[in-house]
Fold:
Amino acid sequence: MRAIAQDYEMLDELCRRTTGSTAEVVEATLAANPGLAKLGPRLPAGTVVQIAVPPKRTQKQTINLWD
Structure:
């Protein structure tokens, strides 16, 4: 998925705006966009970013020992 940064938007804000979450999305997006970190913490307006959404993890079943 491609997204365009707004004025001085941070990467985590861009990820949350486009996917609704930042969990593992920011790290995957940085890995998918070489050189993105060199732009600094605030992205210039109009920067095109390829948002990498990691695969969903299956939830492990948990057992409560005490109620």
